Amino acid sequence: MLRFLEDRRILYNDYAWQEPGHCVQSVLDIRRFLTNEITSLKDVSDLLGPLRVMRAACRKFLDTMQQDGERRVRVHHGLDSFGFYSALGEFRGAIGPQVALLAAHYQIDVEDELAQTLPIEDH
Known about the structure:
- By secondary structure, the chain is mostly helical.
- It is built from 5 helices and 2 strands; from the N terminus they run αααββαα.
- Helix 3 packs antiparallel against helix 4 (79-106).
């Protein structure tokens, strides 16, 4: 499951490189993948909670990218860009802790790019 996320550039590429239409498609792909994983799990699986949190983050990002029934995938500088970048940051902030939880629980090494989403340790 984490191997799939390691190839999702929306989670770690610089904000300036993000194209809203591609981001929406990537989040749709992630949500579809997570739903497939969730439906194949038993209700007692340790994966269920983190996967549901990540899927909810996908839904929230997609909801934010819709306004008045129209997708806001063409972002120009100004209020639209603020909404997009804010939603993107919130999405990454929701995914990172779940990746950390799964990686720690299952003792999985996370590739450097995806590791950028992990919460910073507080000293």
